[in-house]
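Worked problem 6 (solution included).
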Amino acid sequence: MNRTPELIAALRADILAAAPAARPSMIGQLAALQAEMLAQLSMTKLLEPPPPEVAPAEEDRLLRAEEAARLLGQKVQWVYAHAHELPRVPLGGRSVRFSLKGLHRLLARRAT
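Solution. The predicted structure is:
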């Protein structure tokens, strides 16, 4: 259970109830406490293990039919005839590009 709101409310009430002459000293003490808490927080962050590195995603490249045909060892006409079986990105109209990563995965599956 987090008691922070209760503690802050009680501290605020005590400060506001204090004599006005005591308030400058209280402000200085609160500032020192705040600095101490910030220092502890920053040290805690420094001592925490860093988050695990996230491997950068491999970038995909879109290939024209001619490039895909070379990669697959096929003729361009074969690539177009089998486009529905290949990892592709339609670009509108009859234009289409083929995913390099997807083609590599396809070749790897066929090799096993």
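Discussion: The longest strand covers residues 88-92.
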